[in-house]
Amino acid sequence: MQLRGKEADRSLNIDWKNFYKNVFALVIPMAVQNLINVGVTATDVVMLGRVGEKVLSGASLAGQVQFIMTLIFFGITSGATVLTAQYWGKKDTRTIEKILGMGLSAGLVTAAVFAVLALMIPETLLRIFTSDPEVIEQGVMYLRIVGISYLFMSVTQMYLNIMRSIERVMIATFVYFISLVMNILLNAVLIFGLLGFPELGIRGAAIATLCSRITETLIVLLYARFKNKDVHIRPGDLIHIDRVLLKDYMVYAMPVVLNELMWGLGTSANTAVIGHLGSAAVAANSVAQVARQLATVVVFGISNATAIYLGKTIGEQKLVHAKAYAKRFIWLSLILGLLGGTMILLAVPIVRANMALSTQAQDYLGFMFFVMLYFTVAQAFNTTMVVGVFRSGGDTRFGLIMDVSTMWGCSILLGALAAFVFHAGVPVVYMLLMSDELIKVPITIKRYLSYKWLRNVTREKEELEGI
Predict the structure, then answer these.
(1) Strand locations in 121-230 (E)
(2) At what angle do helices 279-295 and 243-275 cross, to 10 degrees?
(3) What is the 8-class DSSP label of residue 407?
(4) 464 φ/ψ angles, rounded to the nearest 5 degrees
(5) Mean per-residue pLDDT for 395-403?
(6) Which of 20, 219, 285, 301 shows its CA 20 to 30 Å from the CA of 341?
(7) Cβ contacts of residue 450 below 8 Å, gap of 6+?
(8) Cα(288)–Cα(72) distance, integer angstroms
(9) What span, in angstroms and rounded, lies between the C-alpha atoms of 152 and 412?
(10) pTM of the complete model
(11) Cβ atoms within 10 A of the Cβ of 247, count?
(12) What are phi and psi of 434, to 5 degrees?
């Protein structure tokens, strides 16, 4: 089999050294971006964790509102990537500009809705996740400031994520690095009252986040205006929507938006179940989720690189090459998932020594980190399949169906029953809530081997309006 594989590679004229060079030219900047984004969250967790468990829990649960919103952003841009990566393979930049305009419009509308909710009914939103009045009080203070930042986030994330699909990845690394540095410095000054500033606690963390988001958007707009010569932001594209392109976007992107939304709501449902098990469970889960995010920064870089690289290859009409590349991406995801899971276990004593958590929260944390070990490996595989391989060829409905059925029909249902009907302990509930990624593995393997995902979804210029 190995000999046949090498012979097949030679017959396709695949230069694997060049493949890995191009892939890691995409992966490394995106992994750094993911690491920086997690670093912003981790900064809040570490610094607020030193203030107190209730403060940490309040910020964590308030962050669930932003989490759902950013997943919608990710769905909008991931759906756009299905089209932009393939049009990039065809070098059709005008169509990419039109897709960018649609993405920015959708992002701004989404952000406006979430900002209004965060500013007007923050307490109602937080009661979904917890009944602890002190945690709600802290979360409300955080949301009423951070909610303003959502509009700035929409522009930044829409633009940078779509730029990834045309292989412009370094600008996002620069933007998020500046944001991280600013967030860390402002967090330290405003949370703890350094350099003569008042000690603002959780409100200081929220102000730091808002200032960082404004800075991100300013850098993005300057880059788009003066540096990006290939794809421009045209205000007219935000208003005038190409009907033919919109139809394609709805077919391929809307299942992704719904997929990310349902997955995000499912993750928030997990947090809500845990939130009703006490602040110790919430605090431990906050730390465990940050550890998982840190362990998967490279893996998520691989999944995004898979979508971009395979999409471009399919757009170039190299379908047999795309098949061969997909296999390599899958192996890379498994290797990196195992490495990430191992890192989580090694981090347990370090985290315990540096967090002001109760004894009960520390006990929960040890078990949650063990669950994250196998969860991370399964998630690495499934994410590369669904976000990378399947979406690269326009197979977007499959992920929606699978996520809804495995999360809402299995893990969330079982976890909620265990928590509220059978009154099981936190470890049992947590293990059930985190079981969905294991259930997905055989389903994604079967779909991959069907090769139903391998399709070119672009149109010729003559089919599109105004071109």
Answers:
(1) none
(2) 140
(3) I
(4) -95, 150
(5) 89
(6) 20
(7) none
(8) 23
(9) 32
(10) 0.72
(11) 11
(12) -95, 20
* 349 burial via Cβ count (<10 Å: 0-12, 13-18, 19+): exposed
Q: 165 — phi, psi (to 5°)?
A: -70, -15
Six-digit token pair at 121? 């009914």
Q: What is the pLDDT of residues 203-262, one digit of tens each?
A: 888 899 899 999 999 999 999 999 888 888 888 888 888 888 888 888 887 888 788 778
Q: Quick one: what percent of the chain has pLDDT higher than 90? A: 30
State the Cα angle at 19 between 317 and 437, rounded to 5°. 85
Per-residue pLDDT tens digits for 49-108: 777 777 877 787 888 888 888 888 877 887 787 788 888 888 888 888 998 998 899 999
Percent of the chain exceeding pLDDT 70 equals: 94
Please list the alpha-helical segments (H only) found in 52-127. 53-89, 93-120, 122-127
Instruction: Give pLDDT, residue 2.
Output: 42
pLDDT classification of 408: cutoffs 50, 70, 90: very high
All residues at 6 or more sequence positions from 391 whose CB lies less than 8 Å from its CB, including other chains: 78, 79, 81, 82, 256, 307, 311, 399
Task: State the average pLDDT over residues 432-445.
Answer: 94
Distance CA 175, CA 338 (A): 30
Please state whether 317 falls in left (phi above 0), alpha (psi between -120 and 50) or beta: left
3-state secondary structure of 165: coil
| Type of residue at 80 | A
- Chain centroid, CA 94 distance in Å: 27
According to the 3-state scheme, what is the secondary structure of 230-270? CCCCCHHHHHCCCHHHHHHHHHHHHHHHHHHHHHHHHHHHH
Q: Which residue, 285, 312, 292, 399, is CA-closest to 92? A: 312
Burial of 251 (0-12, 13-18, 19+ CB in 10 A): middle
